[in-house]
Amino acid sequence: MEITTPQRITTFLMFEGDAEQAMSFYVSLFDDAEVVSVSRYGADGPGAEGSIQHATFRIAGVPLMCVDSPVKHEFGFTPAISLYVQCADEAEIDRLYAALGEGGTELMPLGNYGFSPRFGWVNDRFGVSWQLNLPA
Protein backbone atom coordinates (compact mmCIF):
# COMPACT_ATOMS: atom_id res chain seq x y z
CA MET A 1 0.00 0.00 0.00
CA GLU A 2 1.40 3.38 -1.04
CA ILE A 3 1.33 6.16 1.55
CA THR A 4 0.90 9.62 0.09
CA THR A 5 1.18 12.98 1.70
CA PRO A 6 -1.14 15.87 0.93
CA GLN A 7 0.09 18.16 -1.80
CA ARG A 8 1.43 21.47 -0.49
CA ILE A 9 2.59 24.66 -2.12
CA THR A 10 5.17 26.78 -0.31
CA THR A 11 6.66 30.09 -1.40
CA PHE A 12 10.37 29.63 -2.12
CA LEU A 13 12.66 32.68 -2.13
CA MET A 14 16.08 32.49 -3.80
CA PHE A 15 18.62 35.07 -2.69
CA GLU A 16 22.25 35.58 -3.62
CA GLY A 17 23.74 36.13 -0.17
CA ASP A 18 20.92 37.90 1.71
CA ALA A 19 18.74 34.94 2.74
CA GLU A 20 19.52 35.03 6.44
CA GLN A 21 19.18 38.80 6.70
CA ALA A 22 15.86 38.75 4.79
CA MET A 23 14.47 35.81 6.78
CA SER A 24 15.38 37.44 10.11
CA PHE A 25 13.85 40.74 8.98
CA TYR A 26 10.56 39.11 7.94
CA VAL A 27 10.33 37.07 11.16
CA SER A 28 10.84 40.27 13.19
CA LEU A 29 7.89 42.01 11.48
CA PHE A 30 5.08 39.49 11.81
CA ASP A 31 3.21 37.75 14.62
CA ASP A 32 3.26 33.95 14.72
CA ALA A 33 6.68 34.04 13.04
CA GLU A 34 9.73 31.87 13.59
CA VAL A 35 12.73 30.31 11.91
CA VAL A 36 11.91 26.61 11.71
CA SER A 37 15.09 25.10 10.28
CA VAL A 38 18.37 26.21 8.74
CA SER A 39 21.10 24.29 6.95
CA ARG A 40 24.27 26.05 5.89
CA TYR A 41 26.95 25.51 3.29
CA GLY A 42 30.17 24.15 4.73
CA ALA A 43 33.75 24.97 3.84
CA ASP A 44 33.59 22.67 0.81
CA GLY A 45 30.72 24.68 -0.80
CA PRO A 46 29.27 24.99 -3.32
CA GLY A 47 27.95 28.15 -1.64
CA ALA A 48 29.87 30.56 0.60
CA GLU A 49 30.67 28.93 3.92
CA GLY A 50 27.95 29.68 6.47
CA SER A 51 25.43 30.97 3.92
CA ILE A 52 21.95 29.46 3.75
CA GLN A 53 21.81 26.20 1.84
CA HIS A 54 18.14 25.80 2.77
CA ALA A 55 15.92 27.36 5.44
CA THR A 56 12.29 27.14 6.40
CA PHE A 57 10.55 29.91 8.30
CA ARG A 58 7.03 31.02 9.13
CA ILE A 59 5.48 34.48 9.04
CA ALA A 60 1.90 35.02 10.19
CA GLY A 61 1.69 31.22 10.40
CA VAL A 62 2.52 30.78 6.70
CA PRO A 63 5.54 28.61 5.83
CA LEU A 64 8.18 29.90 3.42
CA MET A 65 11.53 28.56 2.29
CA CYS A 66 14.69 30.37 1.24
CA VAL A 67 18.20 29.72 -0.03
CA ASP A 68 21.35 31.59 -0.95
CA SER A 69 22.02 30.45 -4.48
CA PRO A 70 25.70 29.81 -5.12
CA VAL A 71 25.03 30.56 -8.80
CA LYS A 72 24.72 34.19 -9.96
CA HIS A 73 21.61 34.72 -12.07
CA GLU A 74 20.51 37.20 -14.71
CA PHE A 75 17.15 37.49 -12.94
CA GLY A 76 15.81 38.56 -9.59
CA PHE A 77 12.46 38.96 -7.92
CA THR A 78 9.64 40.60 -9.86
CA PRO A 79 6.44 42.34 -8.69
CA ALA A 80 4.50 39.98 -10.96
CA ILE A 81 4.59 37.66 -7.93
CA SER A 82 4.09 39.26 -4.53
CA LEU A 83 3.23 38.41 -0.95
CA TYR A 84 -0.23 39.77 -0.14
CA VAL A 85 -0.88 40.73 3.48
CA GLN A 86 -4.32 41.42 4.96
CA CYS A 87 -3.63 43.83 7.82
CA ALA A 88 -5.70 43.94 10.99
CA ASP A 89 -5.73 47.71 11.46
CA GLU A 90 -4.30 51.02 10.30
CA ALA A 91 -1.38 50.87 12.73
CA GLU A 92 -0.30 47.50 11.36
CA ILE A 93 -0.45 48.52 7.69
CA ASP A 94 1.45 51.74 8.44
CA ARG A 95 4.15 49.85 10.40
CA LEU A 96 4.59 47.13 7.76
CA TYR A 97 4.57 49.59 4.85
CA ALA A 98 7.26 51.72 6.51
CA ALA A 99 9.45 48.76 7.47
CA LEU A 100 9.16 46.87 4.19
CA GLY A 101 9.56 50.04 2.14
CA GLU A 102 12.73 51.21 3.91
CA GLY A 103 15.54 50.89 1.40
CA GLY A 104 13.13 49.43 -1.15
CA THR A 105 10.94 50.75 -3.95
CA GLU A 106 7.45 52.17 -3.59
CA LEU A 107 5.16 50.74 -6.28
CA MET A 108 1.85 52.14 -4.97
CA PRO A 109 1.86 54.53 -1.99
CA LEU A 110 -0.58 53.87 0.83
CA GLY A 111 -3.96 55.16 -0.23
CA ASN A 112 -7.57 54.52 -1.15
CA TYR A 113 -7.72 52.92 -4.58
CA GLY A 114 -11.44 52.17 -4.64
CA PHE A 115 -11.03 48.42 -4.13
CA SER A 116 -9.64 49.05 -0.64
CA PRO A 117 -9.80 51.97 1.80
CA ARG A 118 -6.04 51.59 2.46
CA PHE A 119 -3.64 49.70 0.22
CA GLY A 120 0.07 49.93 -0.55
CA TRP A 121 2.60 47.99 -2.62
CA VAL A 122 6.37 47.95 -2.15
CA ASN A 123 9.44 46.01 -3.15
CA ASP A 124 11.54 45.59 -0.02
CA ARG A 125 15.30 46.14 0.10
CA PHE A 126 15.83 42.50 -0.89
CA GLY A 127 13.63 42.86 -3.99
CA VAL A 128 10.66 40.87 -2.65
CA SER A 129 7.29 42.42 -3.55
CA TRP A 130 4.63 43.01 -0.88
CA GLN A 131 1.00 44.11 -1.31
CA LEU A 132 -0.48 45.39 1.96
CA ASN A 133 -4.23 45.71 2.34
CA LEU A 134 -6.56 47.01 5.02
CA PRO A 135 -10.00 45.56 4.25
CA ALA A 136 -13.11 47.71 4.56
TrEMBL record:
Pfam family, one: 3-dmu-9_3-mt
Domain PhnB-like: from-to ranges: 7-132
Protein name: VOC family protein
Originating species: Actinospica acidithermotolerans
Top-level taxonomy: Bacteria, Bacillati, Actinomycetota, Actinomycetes, Catenulisporales
